[in-house]
Amino acid sequence: MRFLEEFRDPAMASLIVHRIHQLVTGNWVLMEVCGGQTHSIIRHGIDQLLPDSVELIHGPGCPVCVTPTHCIDEALALATQESIILTTFADMLRVPGSHDDMLACKARGADVRSLYSPLDAVKIAAENPEREVVFFAVGFETTAPVNALSVLQAQALGLTNFSLLVSQVTVPPAIEAIARAPDNRIQAFLAAGHVCTVMGSWQYESLARRLAKPIVITGFEPLDILLGIEAALQQLEQNAARVENQYARYVDRGGNLQAQELIQKVFTTSDQDWRGLGILLQSGLTLNERYQAYDARKRFALDVAPAARGTRCHAGEVLTGRIRPQQCPHFGSECTPDSPLGATMVSGEGACAAYYRYRRAAAVHNV
Ligand code: SF4
Which PANTHER family would you find in this protein's record (predicted)? Predict the structure, then answer.
């Protein structure tokens, strides 16, 4: 199969579902790591096609969702400074901070702009030499290369008014933390195909060995996901635990070396706070010694108080698969996409947003 439509073929989907039902003898719990996969699963009802003994748990692979409240508060602190143009991806605008969100801040007059790329922020910096331009750089290994490139481009242009507020995370430490949690029930992982397009499959080989769990690199179309689930279940039924690449049309073992070089040139690994997971060792990327001049935290001496604990949002439990969105007491009542209490209801890849969009009627019916 080579073309997108072929990965949405209902007849082929039925065939794979049939094979899965024939294959399964045990009770198995799988986590799809990426929020894009979650949306595809819920949208197409893939979880409802599986045997009752197979459970899918939704993972933390939504970059907007895992950005901690403290970083949102830092972005808000920057946005309220008159000299600053704060730029970011559109999904970030409505993520609640401790007391505010960027859209409300913009409505009160702050210069907050949503962009498709940090390279557009570099352009804005070049066009506005009298202003400071900060790009709120969030995301996984997929966004890190272009965020790195923006720094190199600003440097090449001699811009001294461009910086990044970095909240970059990397996937393998999150998988390891979830798998090693004392109450973990997950027996296999569907890894995020687009992250592996950048980083390759090799990163997951030692992880699968250490965790003794299958990791299947999986895409986002319905057949990609069904094939990923089938491969993971085959391993579980055979008591195997290896990395398998079900997204070979885009992923190879080495990944995109140019993109990896960009990441290595500009960033260094660091401990990182994740919403829902807490601080994970060596799970983030920060600007390395050579590019400190582009670090907004240093440039503006940011000193924002730690975010208060005890928010009403249960996103932490959703992001670690401890509850499903409809089990949150605020789902669909106090918390909706128009009036979100948490990031997982705002983001295009958030699990709460997926259930609200595709399963709300069922949730209301079941209450
Ligand atoms: S439904 Fe809303 S309050 Fe509940 S976990 Fe999701 S985002 Fe948070």
Answer: HYDROGENASE MATURATION FACTOR HYPD, HYDROGENASE PROTEIN ASSEMBLY PROTEIN HYPD
Helix (H, G, I), strand (E, B) or coil at 144: helix
Classify residue 330 by its DSSP letter: T
Between CA 253 and CA 48 the distance in angstroms is 32
Give me 113's structure tokens: 């702009």
How does pLDDT run across 289-331, given as a tens digit for each residue?
Answer: 999 999 999 999 998 887 776 678 898 889 888 899 999 999 9
In the chain, list all ranges with CATH 3.40.50.11750.
4-59+183-193+206-245
CATH of 65-170+255-299, one of 3.40.50.300, 3.30.428.10, 3.40.50.11740, 3.30.390.60: 3.40.50.11740
Cβ-contact 110, 80 below 8 angstroms: yes
Nearest to 50 by CA among 233, 272, 322, 217: 233
Closest C-alpha to ligand 1, atom 7: 342
Does the Cβ of 325 fall within 6 Å of ligand 1? yes
Which of 91, 318, 359, 364 gets mutated to test ligand 1 (max ligand atoms within 8 A of its CB)? 318
Q: Are 269 and 285 in contact (CB under 8 A)?
A: yes
Distances (CA, A) of 112 to 81, 123, 220, 224, 292: 11, 15, 31, 37, 23
Q: What is the pLDDT of residue 364?
A: 47
Structure confidence by residue, pLDDT tens digits, 54-86: 999 999 988 889 999 999 999 999 999 999 999
Lookup: tokens for 363: 């949730």
Q: For residue 55, give the H/E element and its range.
A: strand 54-61
Nearest CA to 312 out of 291, 298, 331 is that of 331
> Which residue, among 15, 56, 28, has the nearest Cα to 234 in the 3D structure?
28
